[in-house]
Design brief:
4 helices, alpha+beta
Length: 127
Amino acid sequence: MARTKHYPPDATIADVLPDLADDEDYLRQVLVTMRMCQKHYGDAWVRIGVTGRSPTPSYRIDRPDETARGDGTVEAGKTLFGAYGGRSHDRFTQVNAVKTRWSSRALGMTETLALHDGLRRHRGDVA
């Protein structure tokens, strides 16, 4: 079922998790991509698409880049690693990544892992 309104411009995955049908799987898929970025570039941040109508928002992973000036979507020192569909987790084309409106706030690996661990604890999967 499609959403009827957009997310706030500063929404993060933490804000949308309660609305996701399979929040743990969605977050697990995001973390897989973040870990791949972290392995190659040392760190990773995730932000969500805020204007789509899908109940599972698209997301982008940003990586460190000391030469990046920032572009209004991403702060200086970070650049796009990849953008992905929320349902399929398939990588966007460069054009789709640029045309999507992304949240102004990002979560780092530590915050995203904490969200995932919190879901697992809440469900009793972790002692």
